[in-house]
Write a structure and sequence with these properties.
Layout (H helix, E strand, L loop, with lengths): L1 E4 L7 H17 L3 E4 L6 H9 L2 E4 L10 E4 L6 H9 L3 E4 L3 H15 L3 E5 L5 H7 L6 E4 L2 H6 L8 E5 L5 H14 L13 H14 L4 E5 L5 H13 L3 E4 L15 E6 L5 H14 L4 E4 L17 H8 L10
Parallel strand pairs: 1-11, 1-12, 2-3, 2-4, 4-5, 6-7, 6-8, 9-10, 9-11
Amino acid sequence: MKVLLAQPRGICAGVERAISIVELALEKFGPPIYVRHEIVHNRHVVNRLAAKGVVFVEETDEVPDGAIIIFSAHGVSEAVEKHAKERGLTVIDATCPLVSKVHTEGQRYARNAYEIIMVGHEGHPEIEGTLGRIPAKVHLISAVEDVAKLEVKNPEKLAYITQTTLSVDDTKAVIDSLKTRFPNIVGPTIRDICYATQNRQGAVRELAKHVDVVLVIGAYNSSNSSRLRERAEEVGVPAYLIEDASQLDPAWVQGKAVVGITAGASAPEDLIEGLIDRLKEIAPVEEVAVHPGVQESVHFRLPLSLTKAGAEQDAEGDDTDESAS
């Protein structure tokens, strides 16, 4: 068989930043370091950090007084952050800058007296954090059917925002429906959609046109990983979401000439390498190639409080903390 890898695939800049923040905190302060919820949606990443002394908790009340707590890449509400600081915890925020951008947009709409509609999935950590950052009424919807059920005060003063792990394709039908019902609704441009989500979905759609089956590495609770499987299936090829090579059923690839592989935005590259090794055990692999795609160059700055540059600025009396570029 031939193995074809999607480009881009796997860990994005926001996830890379979040993991680096935890690792730098371990280096600077030593274990234990506490993290509220999974730092990212991938049990392999979580388990590796736990082995180094990271303790994952569901709520800040589980963290000892005076300890260090890191908020995950998905973001948290203002109430959670306030509670942590009231308890004297040292707070380090690993929220993805693109998620923070959505928070800022929502707050801007709220300041201008807009009623806000958010497109996303109820119960997702990012949604909980975002809703808890916007001081205004926010209607949460996830499907076209929800648009007709909306009851708003002023149809002329509406704005919408979206969950970052949803692509343009994920939200297009809902947003089109919103614009049809509320012609004056305002919202972000396509440029504000998470680049990683959009790029990975576009890449797997193109990949699926050239393979007989698609294997997606990612967590079952990862929204963007589930969307990758769906995008491949939409092209008409079978696709399977697995957490790692151990979950591969040999029957899925038996007799397949070309096997495509991609990974969600929280999945490390070594999991992909492990899957390729597993495929080699099932059948001879004559070639491993990368399907042409977008070359990502996005990089987010780390909190200065954890970097050498930050330490030097602290010594000079400057504690400015820039998190994104």
